[in-house]
Amino acid sequence: MPKGKVESIHIASAARAATRSVEEVVALPGGGLQGDRYTAKTGTFYKPEPDYELTLIEAEAIEALYRENKIEFAAGDARRNIVTRDVALNHLVGKEFSIGDVRIRGIRLCEPCEHLQKLTGKKLIKGLLHRGGLRAQILSKGTIHVGDAVIADS
Known about the structure:
Mean pLDDT: 86
Number of strands: 11
Low-confidence stretches: none
Strand content: 25-35%
CATH superfamily: PK beta-barrel domain-like
CATH class: Mainly Beta
Number of helices: 3
């Protein structure tokens, strides 16, 4: 089974606050990532639903945004928690997978929105449409590290 990896991890302490890159983070089922705005229930779109626990985006999508649209966009600017490489995130909707020792369930696509566009000041909706990432539920507690394998169940 092909596997990808965690390229970077990003959390923000409050809604609209800048994200910060961390080397590791504790994933909490029913909550989110320790230290992140959604775990603190202060995210802009917070709802007590599983698909607000974790967001992921492919590094390749960020690179394509520049290659195809000449929009420079740092990994943390995406405001997704986990940046992956070599993982087809859209294929994980409705599926379980692992990030290191942490079990995750893909819930739905995380499409780009006006809010993200306003925060970044960049017109990115068209360039990230259908590749803006994945909203996911954390199924088991554990620590996610940069470099961890991302492995989909068969």
